[in-house]
Amino acid sequence: MSRYRTYWLAVTSGTITYVSQSAENVLGFEPSELTGENVVSYIHPDDQAKIAQDLSEYVDDYGYTGTYRVRVRDSNGEWRVFEARAANLLDDPFVEGIVLNSRDVTEKQRRKRKLERQNERLDQFASIVAHDLRNPLNVAVGRLDLLAENVDGDQADTVDTIQRQLGRIEDIIEDSLALAQSGEIVTETDEVDLGAVAREAWANVDTGEASLAVGDAVRLSGDRHRLLNMFENLFRNSVEHNEPTDLTVRVSALPDEFGFYVEDSGTGIPAEEREKAFERGYTTNRDGTGFGLAIVQDIVQAHGWEVSLSDGADGGARFEVACDAIPLEQQTELA
User: Fold this and answer.
1) I need a labelling partner for 108 at 20 to 30 A (CA). Which of 126, 163, 202, 318 fits?
2) 200 pLDDT tier (thresholds 50, 70, 90)
3) Cα separation of 86 and 68, whole Å?
4) Which helix (H) or strand (E) holds 166?
5) Binning pLDDT at 50, 70 and 90, where does residue 165 land?
């Protein structure tokens, strides 16, 4: 059965005069069962007034088109949600009716509600991390700063160690927040100039003597803020795992499909470590949290895309993001 469950019907004076055969797959009715019936009787009571009003209001407006979200009863008596596009073809001698092209979006609606609940839980988690962990951490840091002013010798070394560990906790909190938010499914997008976002991210990261090269322009629909975060984590990964001197990081369009890549001229990531690279907490850097590439993967997947890791042309790490893996407009329709 097609992912897009659609059917056509024609209506004249509220009576169904034609139904496409696909209605049987979508609603469970044979076309002959619906032909001659009053269309409003199959519409949810709460939606009937709006549909009836519009059908009567535009009955003399030949060529009028409109789009509706309406609940329709199927053969099992259950209500399914449809997006219906209506076109007034009453003056067309071959039709003489209002034609409705209806697409079943019931699963899309359920998926959307599920994702909204998931995003709410992630927001709650982020709030707990931000408030309940940061407050005692700030108190500890403040007290330790006061203590540091009155110690010396071995005690000073101990205070330095504690300060480093508290700093690491702060890093973990920041990355945990970013990880929680990065997994939220992208529902609102803008047209994004990827090169401009990459340059901004580069300026936000301490990249030392490394250099950025931006190649072919890529414009796509995405969440600019999260794409900025994605690039920042990719750039940090390159700089922190390579000697920044003479390191070049390149961002450009993929040659054979719609997407982009980020590639560095460093030492690369061994093949046996690539599957683990995106795991939460996995790191080869003693001071790292291991969340950076996990955040990258979450942001990519939240857009409905896919990310892969391979060798770059110069032996460094190459991250490829295929933006047509799951089209953006379909990502909330998957059951």
Assistant:
1) 126
2) very high
3) 8
4) helix 154-182
5) confident
